[in-house]
Amino acid sequence: MLLGDRDDREAFNRGYLAVAHQPYYADKQVHQNMDFYFLDSKWELNKSAGWLDRPQLDWLNKNLHLAPRRRAFIFLHHPLDAPALRDMRYTLLQNNRELLAILHGHNIGGIFTGHLHFDANYVVDSVVPVTVTGSAATYINCQDPYQHDVYTGTTYNVITIQRGIASVITHPLALGQTVIQTIPVNRTGFVKHRPRAIPVRRPLP
Question: What are the distances in angstroms from CA 57 to CA 41, 111, 142?
């Protein structure tokens, strides 16, 4: 399970936090000698940008060092920065460098994200592939940096991983022809301030 920017973190954490004092949701699964990490990149309420807080990055760093040679795959909601997404930095993961510093030198097979409502594929840190999957609800045309047009659209993606190699197949089911919403963008660069500390939320008994 992953948190999106529109999800309610407090309600999500009540249902999915396994440790009562843990201030963030993060999960690790091991399958066929591969590690799968699921992170919470949601920022503050009503913020479309993403952020990985320090305790969560420390958790990821610790777990990666427990098995430094094992192939690892990272899942989070917000994409990392890339040249083609330069005009969308306000809505991407804001602390890319902190994450990449932790991943550097490890056996990372890929990073998988969503959020943009269109598909994209690129490489970060020279060797780590990033896949941005489409949306099941809408398609967003971001060719104009300051005005994004939203269409109805349904897409799903199948990620297949065998022997440490990942491939993604996109299945578009429908794409509307009428703009149903226009999203104005005032600033395209990174957000200027850091987020407030995330409060600890205890799950319901």
Answer: 11, 15, 30
Cα–Cα distance measured from residue 8 to residue 61, given in angstroms and rounded to the nearest whole number: 26
Cα separation of 173 and 171, whole Å? 6
Give residue 115's region: left, alpha or beta (phi > 0; psi -120 to 50).
left
Per-residue pLDDT tens over the stretch 40-57? 999 887 889 999 999 999
Give whole-number Cα distances, 15 to 10, 19, 170, 205, in Å.
Answer: 9, 11, 30, 10
With CA atoms as reference, report the closest residue to 184 among 157, 155, 161, 150.
150
CB-facing half-sphere around the CA of 110: CA atoms within 13 A: 19
Count of all residues that appear for the chain in the document: 205
Q: Enter the pTM of the model.
A: 0.92
pLDDT top residue among 35 and 47 = 35
Report the pLDDT value the prediction gives residue 11, as an integer from 0 to 100: 83
Residue 134 one-letter amino acid: G
Q: Which two tokens stand for residue 149?
A: 């047009």
What pLDDT, on the 0 to 100 scale, is given for residue 153?
96
